[in-house]
Amino acid sequence: MYDKYNFITGVPHWNEKKCDLDENVTMMNINSCVNGSLDKNDEKFIFPSKYLNNLKLCKLKIGMAPLFPYSVIANENSLQSLDRLKEEDIFGSDLEIIKIMAKKINFTLEMFYIKRDEDNNMVKKNFINYLLNGTLDACAGGLYNIYGNVVAYSGVYDRELVIWIYTVERETRSWQTLLRKTGGLYIFLIFLASYSIIWKLFCQFDGRAVSLNNTILYSFGALVGTTSLLDAMSLKQKILNLSYLILCLHLSSYISTQMYYYLTVENPPQTINTIDELAISDTIPYLVPTKKYFLNNDKYIAFANTSRDCEDFLDCERSVLKNRGATLILDGLLYPFQSSTAVKDESRIMRVDEDVLVLYHEMIMRKDSFMVDKLHNIILRLFEAGICDKLYKEAIGVTIVDKAKIAVKNILSYSYSCSAGCKITWLQLAGSFYLWMIGCGLSICCFIVEILTKKQV
């Protein structure tokens, strides 16, 4: 005698004629247990899957909402809600994800346009009724988990950031930048004063009359390479002069290096890392008045109150570029903006490192749909494998993303006007010629004054 137990369960059966589940579920014997041992030890017989893996080319009706780069629809402005869409009319990462689903479980994709023409696309629910009444099976196009429990969700397949962007430019050459780069000259002036005082003390000790003014004048002349030092009469003065001449050589090297650096190298612009830094900077924000108060945060609202108005996002873009301002943007739009506005392969647009808001994208489905668990499982696997992120970047454009990243890297690095053997032009040295002409003019004026003074005497 032996004990035998049968495992019986009902597995859903898909009826391709009705494109629906059969109402009558056939009970099947999936395994047997004899004297404590299973007849079939394979996991698929112990826990058989009840997911439908083959819809036998039945149609699944998907509503597509427009949002770059998830779902970009051709001739969007001429379409009405539930207008039928062809695959060639759409491109974007959501379309590619849906096509993967269709191939995975063998359904025919039928897509419809769902219109979103309101001020805030995130919170309007006008297309939810299409799911509730069975017109659509699912909706995609950069949607969010904000519609309550009346619908089912696919699970997160991508996240998008709301960020501040601002314009940057390299610092132009000016006398102010030259003075900043040669700010270490004060050290040499300290040594000049020290040398003059020590020389004066040595001369007094040796009983040699010397003017402090002449000492400073000759010391300065030697420092800039225009005169010789005063004659050294003792060993201590010779040692002092030798050490000072070495200092003069270092000054000459320092000035030539800084001048070369000033004329051939441009520093990267100052960057802004936090929203607080942006708020206290001189950067003016440009925002659309009807859309800017989407975040209940005191600091954000205070900064938004200082903004200037723009009509729409494109107008905000133009205002930011024209007036060196800042605006809010979805990070999916950042790469195309940086790529299209780059000058000499250097980005004019940078983002603040701190995020304003994080948005998580999910597709929505009919809650009573038999495909909810299966589609959720597919989305989860695609997300974990990094395929969703790959499709997202491909929808933006791989070359656009790369160009934007290169442009940002270039603007954050030092700019060299040449790679080797840099030639400094006469135009770049014009400032020194102007100084020489001014000096000559002042000398001539002094000469004329002396002539007139002697004539009067």
From TrEMBL:
One of its GO terms (cellular component) is plasma membrane. It is a multi-pass membrane protein. Its main location: membrane. InterPro entries: Insect_Ionotropic_Sensory_Rcpt. It is found in: Cell membrane. The chain crosses the membrane at residues 183-202, 214-232, 244-263, 433-452. The keyword Cell division does not apply. Keywords: Cell membrane, Glycoprotein, Membrane, Receptor, Transmembrane, Transmembrane helix. This is Uncharacterized protein.
